[in-house]
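Hello K.,

You asked for the raw outputs rather than the summary table, so here they are, unedited. I folded two proteins back to back in the same session to keep the settings identical. This is the first:
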Amino acid sequence: MSWKSGLKTVGAGVTVVVFDDTTEDHTFERDVRTDSSGHFRIGGVPPGAMVVRAFRQETAEQTDVKVSVSAGVTAAVDLIFAGTASVAGTVVYPNGSPAPGVAVAGGITLVHTDADGRFLIPVIGLGHQQIQAGDEATGAQATVDVDIGAPGIVVPVTIVLPGSGSIRGVLRNANGQVQAGAEVLLWFGSAGYLSTTTDSQGNFVFRDLPLRSDYTLVAVTADGDGQRQAVSLDVNGQVLVQDLSYRGMGTVTGVVLDPDGVSPHTAKIVVSYQDFDAYGQLQDVGKTAASDQLVSAGPPGASRCGARCPDGTTNCSGRFTVQIPAGFPYRVQALSPFNGDPAAATGMLASAGALDE
């Protein structure tokens, strides 16, 4: 069985393919190219429902014709492209400023915007088309959908391309000293983060960032000290300067006493608070200490604990000392195997270097 037909006024090089129209997974498929007059012939086609499709690479045009094939019969099929149109438009940033030098693709045509952000795609097929714009330097992309209804028309479009900016700053500790060689993270929402390392002057920078309002700068230390700062980039070309300073550490200290309110008591101390994990996310932490520190030289008649200290003596102060990050609420519990419910106290270190008794 053979098919014979022509693509009028098209000429050579158009791809024509025939495939069966009975299943999603084609059991038969064959393609040819048109000759110089636009004609084609496909032989060996089995009987049944078939689709003949023509595709023109230069304009991304496509047209289909369904045909019922009979054994021993040559079927003539004419495939007619609907025609082409043009797309003329402008690529701008969210603030309305033009986006020069941006790549724009429509159909199979790739062009670049001029100094005013304008572009022209001279030939594109009819029907539903996507026009894509992309900044090859920053990776910013945008797409618009257009429906081209008639050949020969010029369709105007405006593409708003996400802009880009930079975030820079200096990282310091709570005492104002610059932190060299420290990691700084930039989270974008909760989807992921970028990482950089401060230079010898504590400077950090993140370049070519898309505009968005949900950035968070994060820097942390191994002991859970750190800082988080929400930032946003709103205008193309913006350079946002945002320094970071660690919160700093403070001290929670106290004395565990027996119910008489006088005698120091040896107990397990658990301080519950929040600090930063390695990615700058807040986490609940429990730090354990013991209120069995030795009494230093002091006045005669110092209280004596009923339990032994680590060195085997029984001169104990009942005091505990724990360092935690400032700026977070904490809860202290004293746990003793000899008492029932734990004794507890709460508080918050207001600033770096604070001492809560």
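The second followed immediately with the same parameters:
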Amino acid sequence: MSLVIESQHRVAKGKTGVVVVVAGRGPLLDGRAPSHVPPAFRPDPGRGPRTWGNLVFRVDPLAYAGYDRAALQFGGPAGGPLQEALGENGFQQSTFRFSAIDHPLGMLPWMPSVPGDGSVGVMARYFQSPVPPGSTAAEVRERLGGAPHIEVLHVDFPPPPPCTVAYTDDLKVATQRYLDAATAGGLGSKSVWNKYKGADGAGVKVVDVEQGWVFNHVDLKLPGNPLVYGKNLLYQDHGTAVLGILRALDNTIGVVGMAPACSLRVASQWETSTTWNTPDAIAAAAQVLRSGDVLVIESQCELSSGSNEFWPVEIYSDTWNAIRNAADKGIVVVEAAGNGGHDLDTGLAWDGKTLVVAANWFTDNDSGAVMVAAADGGLTGSFTRQYESNYGKRIDCFGWGTDVATTGISGLTTTNGYRTDFSGTSAATALVAGAITSLQGMVRATTGSGLAGPTLRTHLKDTGNGTLPTYGLAEKIGQMPNLAALAAALKCASV
């Protein structure tokens, strides 16, 4: 059984890209849920399987002719057939996918409407509804595939683990070699901190999107309530490690973040302890950022829950639109490529059942995010693609994928732990985001504002501004930012 998902995206110059993806098994096919699924969604021995998937669908503008916002349902001459089809198949109530934005329909000034949409922005046309108990993903697709006014749909699964790594018990922090000069294999933080104004990230706002953190770590101490959306729920060790790379305090203990003076907040993929919504978290993060600020997506997704086939989160159309809208606002979105080992250029061939991603889809449908791969060889300065990292022409940059020292925990009550083993595209993405935040601080101190995403990506891809992997661009992981070269190329102001 398989779920066919068709996702259409409006891209630059009016082109439309189409991706067809397949989830190999439905969420309730065998009554079991993978280990990362919260207890509330696991099978109940006394009552059978529970629902833990969400139907996500986008409606065409005609469906709004009879839409009743107060009742959260479709009706009238245009919406009636859609509501009838949803009701007949057990979907009793549909809610806005992007609920973080309190908006009247059609009043979305920062969300550009797709040509032909009339007054309804594309992000206002996404809805979600829990999959009825006992249903498989394949059955949902079969029942609703021909429903009127539904343009695209997919079944959304709980966020998978961001990266599988082991915590080290050794709390002695190794030298943060990634802070060294590019000639020594680092990103060059030490080369710019005391040379250029703003190199500590002062004046730059950052939001980290993932699943959990420890805010009161002695080397972080985030002020107030840094959570702009959702619930601090899972994988706090991962989030704490990311925050340490970005903004560990410049004090007399522990490690130092790459941009220790930046303003750092977070957004969780978990709306509540039992509901998740990655694109809504991204949209909420974008609401508190300006052009030139940084939005970090420390997450990956699965096409079939528990498959361990990890892809960039933008593979789904709702998440792609959330990223694209943030990028269009001038925000620099930094997105993990994911730890699936996939060549994003080739896609997978049609075998009669599964067509996952068309060749060159990620390149042809550029979301505007800086996409980051991971490399081995940080301690030696000889970089090669990490086996687990996704790769392809779409990749902008790489970072260290092993041996990254940062803040850590060994239990939620630990507030003074450190680790030297942070890894994968999670570590690489945090490093590249830290470098970008430092660079934006220098640019802001020089010109009064940061670079918008497209301009920044152009500089990041200039081969004079980065460290190439051992086998050059043929590795298809981009290059690692060299902060000293970037600061010089952009004529940043000296201290």
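The first strand starts at residue 3 and ends at 10.

Happy to rerun anything if the numbers look odd on your end.

Regards,
P.
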